[in-house]
């Protein structure tokens, strides 16, 4: 009976490991699909920018980047940031990270990049956050 208990436990452990790996693979595939979709959207925006620039050229008008292309550039910025987030999530699933200097994939606990030799920080630096206070209630009190 002891043999079958051990066999059952081993089968359960194997199932759990396999299910976990399958889940990671599925998550990674979804993230890569989202990255490719964003890259395709960026290409479409590039084409739209090119079209706008060419139309201005044909009409011999000046191109004002801020005025004419700000919306498209902002969309590209947002999509690029999402791609970066998805890439980091993919690396996280594989217990990897990017080198701060050359962006190579490296082990999560690596002290130096094997590609460029750059020393790696152990912790991500804290990001600055702007705090905006809500002054509506004080404005209402004054009225």
Give an overview of the whole structure.
By secondary structure, the protein is mainly alpha-helical. It contains three helices and two strands. Strands 1-2 form a two-stranded antiparallel ribbon. A hairpin with a 6-residue loop joins strand 1 (96-98) and strand 2 (105-107). Helix 1 runs antiparallel to helix 2 (65-93). Mean pLDDT is 83; it is low at 135-143.
Write the layout of secondary structure elements.
Elements: H1 2-58, H2 65-93, E1 96-98, E2 105-107, H3 136-142
Antiparallel strand pairs: 1-2
Helix pairs in contact: 1-2
Query: What structural class do the secondary elements suggest?
Result: mainly alpha
Please estimate the helix content. Answer: 55-70%
| Cα radius of gyration in angstroms | 25 Å
Number of strand segments: 2
Sketch the major β-sheet: 2 strands, antiparallel
The residue ranges in which pLDDT falls below 50 over 5 or more consecutive positions are 135-143
Basic shape: elongated
Strand content: under 5%
Q: Please list the strands of the largest sheet in the order they lie side by side.
A: 1-2
Give the termini distance in whole angstroms.
83 Å
Query: Mean pLDDT score, rounded?
Result: 83
H/E topology pattern: HHEEH
Number of helices: 3
């Amino acid at each position: 009976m002891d043999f079958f208990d051990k066999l059952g436990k081993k089968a359960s452990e194997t199932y759990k490991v396999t299910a976990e790996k399958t889940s990671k693979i599925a998550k990674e595939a979804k993230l890569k699909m989202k990255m490719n979709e964003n890259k395709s959207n960026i290409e479409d925006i590039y084409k739209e920018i090119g079209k706008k620039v060419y139309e201005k050229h044909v009409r011999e008008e000046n191109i004002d980047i801020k005025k004419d292309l700000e919306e498209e550039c902002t969309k590209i910025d947002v999509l690029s940031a999402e791609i970066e987030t998805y890439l980091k999530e993919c690396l996280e699933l594989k217990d990897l990270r990017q080198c701060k200097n050359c962006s190579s994939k490296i082990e999560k606990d690596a002290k130096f990049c094997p590609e460029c030799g750059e020393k790696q920080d152990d912790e991500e630096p804290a990001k600055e956050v702007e705090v905006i206070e809500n002054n509506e209630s004080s404005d209402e009190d004054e009225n």
